[in-house]
Amino acid sequence: MKQKKWINLILFLCVSLSIWGGTKTVEAAETSLADVKSSGKLVIGTSADYPPYEFHAKLDGKDQIVGMDILIAEKIAKDIGVSLVIRDMDYDSLLPALEAGKVDMVIAGMNPTDERRKSVDFSDIYYQGGQFIIIRNEDKDIFTQKSDFSGKILGVQKGTMQETVAKEQIEDVKMMGLTKIPDLILALTTKKIDGIVLEEPSALAYVSNDKNLAFIDGKFDLDANEQGSAIAFRKGSESLVTAVNQSIAEIKEQNLIPQFIKKAGEQLIEGQGGNEEGDVKPIFSFWEYFAKGTGYTIFIAFISVIIGIILGAVLALMRLSKSKISRGIAGVYVEFVRGTPMMIQVMFIYFALGVVINIPALLAGIIAVSLNSGAYICEIIRSGLNSVSKGQMEAARSLGMGKVDTMRYIIFPQALKNIWPALGNEFITVIKESSIVSIIGVGDLIYQTKVVTAITYRPVAPLAVTLIIYFILTFSLTKLLNYYEGKMNHD
């Protein structure tokens, strides 16, 4: 027993050290202008929930990522002579994606703080605006300046400069950090928080589209080098930064920013399916988004379950084998995967392993969910095999059946009946937990829900639709599994 524990401990340390060491020793190289030109495309990372900087809009019958930042990026790509590729993900995943080489630059209304400059390079500031605080319209008499939020709860987008300055300049303020602005708006309207710190253009965009919201000028004291928006690059990308700065200089010289903001405002109104009077389409008119997200969710869950079953069966047999090494490897894998959050696993595979090999977001999501599911299915199958009496194996072998045939025709069919309910629960869990892949920009149901929320400025209705869709998926699967469980019980 002691020897087994030592083997497991050594294997666990080897796996952990190899993972840690691999991520430390391999770094993505800087992106040069020549690299971008040779690839023929400029890949930008953004978080498209921040109008008028960047946001989703339904234009010409299809979903597009548009806004002031996108117009700037389009000009930069045109000046360089390449096509523009946009990758949308959570804001706090943008810099990891940049450092992992998933994108060439990040343009997302990002402030070039001293802390960020330690890990990435920045362009010149292309837009400078104040910091506003969104409040409920009913609270206009309560909150008139930033000091009024002392002891109150302010919402901020995680990883932003607004989070830092609010903590430093408002005494005893409490913070709620979320990754998406629509989630913060929902928290504000449902009175979970008292205000949201946003840059002036974004604050104005949200307030102008919701009569229940208002804003005040935060009048935060900001360092001149940190105030404003700039484009982020990997360290050492001097040639690309120089080229981008040339485009920014032209934008400033030609005074294009006001034109870009005006264009973004027009896209905002059109993208909502509305008009100047503020009339908008009903939530179900955005059914294409929900249908697309549902398709991705089903696809990811189906593929992940198939791979998970195969992996789980192999791991279960390894854990039941007579080989100490096989048992040790399988045991370490199961304990490690079950002992770490799936969100970290998804991010590790996409970002950390992405430094070594460029894995697309969808594939990374499927791999992570499959590996996670395999660990749980392993234990389900192992318990099912152990539940079959050892006498079944002995009886089959005494009749001349080989070990493989015995497992295939005698043991596995009986074990399957025992584990079917638990296996069904795992299938349902995968459908729901696969939503975590939205953090790396995979267009599953949760991702599309956030897109619709950002387009319509209606935080509750898209969630209600998504709840119904998930219920239909899981309820239908439950009925299907119960049907086959009944058939097996009658066999």
From TrEMBL:
Pfam family of the protein (one): SBP_bac_3
Record GO biological process: amino acid transport
Signal peptide: 1-28
GO CC annotations, alphabetized: ATP-binding cassette (ABC) transporter complex
GO molecular function terms listed in the Swiss-Prot or TrEMBL record: ligand-gated monoatomic ion channel activity
ABC transmembrane type-1 domain boundaries: 294-481
Annotated NCBIfam families: HEQRo_perm_3TM
Protein name per UniProt: ABC transporter substrate-binding protein/permease
